[in-house]
Every structure is written in C-alpha cells, then in structure tokens.
C-alpha cells in the first residue's frame, strides 16, 4: 500500500469568522498570489483587459460603432467604479492574508502512514488563516 499523505485544507465556519486551516505551503502560496493575479499584475495588457471586459462584444461582421455611445459610457462611468471596488476588495484580502498563523499539522492515522512520512508531515509549516465573516464578499469578488 502506498503511503498516505494527508493534504486536505480544512474550512471552519464560526459566528464571527471562517477559517482555512491545515494549509499546505503550496496552498498558502496560491492564496498569497490572489491579490496580484486578480489585479492582472505581470499579465499583458490584452490579458488584463479580459479581467474587466466591456458589456458588449460586437458579433462578427457587426459594426462596432453601433454601440460606441454605450461603450464610451461604460469606460467613463462604470469601469472606474468597478476598478475601485475591486482594488478595495484586493486590499482587504491582502490585509487578511497578513493575519496568517502557524497551524497544527493534520492528524494522521499511523496505521495508514509510514513513520518517515509522518515525520515529514509534522515538519511542514502548516498555516491557518482566520478571515472575518464580513470580509467574505471581498474574497468572492
């Protein structure tokens, strides 16, 4: 039987917060990347524009000027507000990420795991991230 390596993040919900617990370093790394990825940092201009596309994509053969007024309004009135909202949400997520704690390693069944694997699991820097419930909207956005 191959060794069992428990690497399952736990999600706990309380009255005041939700907690991502037993975060493996790889999972923690991906969480830390969320603010930069969601801002398009390091992406080409073309890719960044796909993060916040306009409301209308002209169909093949359709005259794009037909929707120019609506697209101009989108660029002037809607897009700046959306960008500010997303920027605020990213800042909230960044601040929440700073609240990370060192967590406990997952409990393992010694009958299913070889001793050297159990030692390796115990040596990993597991993380625990508490997030206030009222920050959920920012995380989802």
Structure, described:
The chain has 141 residues and is an alpha+beta fold. It is built from five helices and four strands, in the order ββαααβαβα. It has helices at 25-39, 45-51, 68-97, 115-123, 136-140, and strands at residues 10-13, 17-23, 101-102, 127-132. A hairpin with a 3-residue loop joins strand 1 (10-13) and strand 2 (17-23). Helix 1 (25-39) packs antiparallel against helix 3 (68-97). The longest helix has 30 residues, at 68-97. The radius of gyration is 22 Å and the shape is elongated.
What value does the average pLDDT take? 85
> Distance between termini?
43 Å
Largest sheet: 4 strands, antiparallel
Gyration radius over CA? 22 Å
Low-confidence stretches: none
Total strands: the figure is 4
Alpha-beta classification: alpha+beta
Number of helices: 5
Instruction: Give the neighbour order of strands across the main sheet.
Output: 1-2-4-3
Helix percent reads: 40-55%
Order of helices and strands: EEHHHEHEH
The proportion of strand residues reads 5-15%
Tertiary shape: elongated
């Amino acid at each position: 039987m191959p060794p069992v390596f428990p690497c399952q993040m736990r999600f706990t919900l309380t009255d005041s917060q939700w907690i991502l617990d037993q975060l493996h370093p790889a999972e923690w790394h991906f969480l830390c990347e969320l603010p930069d990825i969601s801002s398009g940092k390091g992406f080409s201009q073309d890719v960044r524009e796909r993060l916040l596309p306009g409301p209308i994509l002209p169909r093949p053969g359709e005259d794009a000027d037909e929707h120019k007024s609506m697209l101009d309004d989108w660029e002037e009135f809607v897009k700046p507000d959306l960008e500010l909202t997303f920027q605020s949400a990213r800042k909230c997520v960044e601040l929440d990420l700073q609240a990370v704690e060192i967590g406990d390693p997952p409990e393992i069944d010694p009958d299913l795991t070889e001793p050297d694997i159990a030692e390796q699991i115990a040596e990993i820097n597991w993380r625990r991230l508490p997030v206030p419930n009222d920050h959920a909207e920012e995380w989802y956005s």
